[in-house]
Structures are given as structure tokens and as C-alpha cells.
Amino acid sequence: MYSKILIASLSIFLYLGCNPKNKTSHEVVAAKPSIEVPNFNADSAYHYTDRQVAFGPRVPNTEAHTACGDFFVEKLQSFGAEVIEQKMDVTTYDGKILKARNIIASYQKEKKNRVLLFAHWDTRPFADHDPDPSNHRKAIDGANDGAGACGILLEIARQTNIHPTEMGIDIIFFDAEDWGVPTFEDKYNSTSGYCLGSNYWAKNPHVNNYTARYGILLDMVSAPKALFFQEHYSRQYAPNIIKKVWDAAHSLGFGSRFIREPMGAIEDDHIHVIKHRNIPCIDIIDYDPNSEKGFGDYWHTMEDNMSNISKQTMQMVGQTVLHVIYNEKE
Ligand code: AHN
Ligand code: ZN
Questions:
Q1: Helix-, strand-, coil-residue percentages of the chain, each rounded to 5
Q2: pTM for the whole thing?
Q3: Ligand 1 surroundings by CB, under 6 angstroms
């Protein structure tokens, strides 16, 4: 008896459920699953930036550097990433051996199609662009030049753990980026000595023959008035990624900061990944080709401290990157 009622009501249910004529006007017939992009939390990113700066300058071969590296590993593991620490010795322009460490966090390692996000986590030992020459040999806080981009990537890692992407994601925190030859040296050269950690990884990746569909470098992406023009090598080697990222930023209402105009070439971590791994990469970097200095006034000065960090800028960059990686189909 009960089973007959059950079968009868089930057939009515199935009939109604399958017959489109029974749909009321407000029902959506074939709803396309829309892509859910998580909300980037700039308060978290700011907090992770503050945590890094609180260790003191993260200059390789110092205690603050070791402690901050450990902080990244711990945080990333707590965000569910598989973490690999690549320890290496690199040699600076003046022959110092740095005990350096690239920190690699992977999500969905089994996936073949991957996106690589990266930034540098070390800070510069010289404030050689400070207006006061007595500061030139002091280390900088590197709140924007280092910590901010890593804070954004930590927040992206946290989100990636909660809401999986279609693509596999790797996030690399490169070490020893900022030991470029300072202006007070006789052999000063504005482009030499940088990017030692990324150069090492690009020649010795953590996974044999590592590759990714593309890479996005964040460098100096948290200053209050940051402007992002399209860097030369990025346009040359990854024009479609430039378009994708600037289109995303404009669609989210950040067009006043993501300027669709070219600028010069910048010697940065992306160059090594392009050259040695053959991965198309872009560099999102605060550099205004129409200003006198190019880089912001804070650049490589004692002013690059927490007062140089804007949650609003972090929000624009973080949300743009999330938009791009969550819209990427496998
Ligand atoms: C040069 O100044 C040649 N490249 C910029 C690399 C850099 C230093 N990014 C942050 N600090
Ligand atoms: Zn720097």
C-alpha cells in the first residue's frame, strides 16, 4: 500500500520535474554554472605583510631571514599546500655566499595544466636610493619591495585551499632577488646582481622538466599610488597573458591603475623563468614610465615601510589575480 503511494508520487514528481511546460516563469531552464571567484581579503594580505616586516629586514644570512622563511613554510602548510623548500648557495656580485631558500607551495599536484604565481621574499641589504647617504648601507624593511606581494600570495594560497581552482596552482617565493649592485659601488650597474634565487630555480626546478601554462610575477604591488604599465618582456613573451590580466582588472573597475600602455624592460624574476623554463610570464610591477624616477619614491629607501602599504592597492591586485586563475579552464 505504502509502496504504491510512493511509486505514484514518485512518478508524478518525475513527470513534473522532467516536463519543461510545468516550469513557472521565474524558473531558470538551463542555468549555466557561473564561475565563482572568491573575494580577496585585503585585511589578511595586510596582516601577512605586517608579520613579515615585524621579523626585521629579511636579508639572507640573518636570523630574521631564517625566521621569516620558517613562517612561510608553516603558513603554507596550514593552508593545505604541499611545500618544498629548495635550499641553495648563491654568490653575490661581491663574492658573498648566501644561504638561500626558495619556497614552493603546490596545489593539486596531480594536475598537468598549471599556473605559476611568484614573488621575491628577501629584502634589499642597501637603502642606496635613500636621500640621506648615511642610510645607503642599511637594510630596508621592504614592506612593498618584497613583503606586500608575498602577503597577497599567502592570501591567494589561503583562498585556493578553501575553493579549488580548475588548474593546478604553484606559488613560488623566490629568495635572493634584491642583492643587485648598489649605486655606491664602483662597479655599479643598474641591472646586475639581482634575481639569484629565481635564476637557480629556473635552471634547477623542483620537479624535473617543470612547466606551466603561464606565470605571473608580483613585484611592488602594494604602494598607495601604484600604477601598473605593461612591461616590455611581458608584452613580448606573453602578450595574451598581459591582455587577460589587464582585461580582468578593467572589468573589475581597476582601469585607473592597470594602464594599457607599454613601458621599458625590467630585469626581474620573470626573465629567468621565461628564458630557462620557456614559460610565458608577465611582471606586474609598480613603475611609471612618465615619472622622473620610474619606480616610486620609496624604492630602495628607508621609506619602504608599513606606511607604504595600501589595502586598497592590495585588493585590486589580489582580486585581479584571483579572477584570472578562477576563470582558467583546465
Ligand atoms: C632593476 O632594478 C634592474 N630591476 C628591478 C628588480 C627589483 C628590485 N625589484 C624589486 N627590487
Ligand atoms: Zn628591490
A1: 40, 15, 45
A2: 0.90
A3: 145, 178, 190-191, 194, 219-220, 266-268
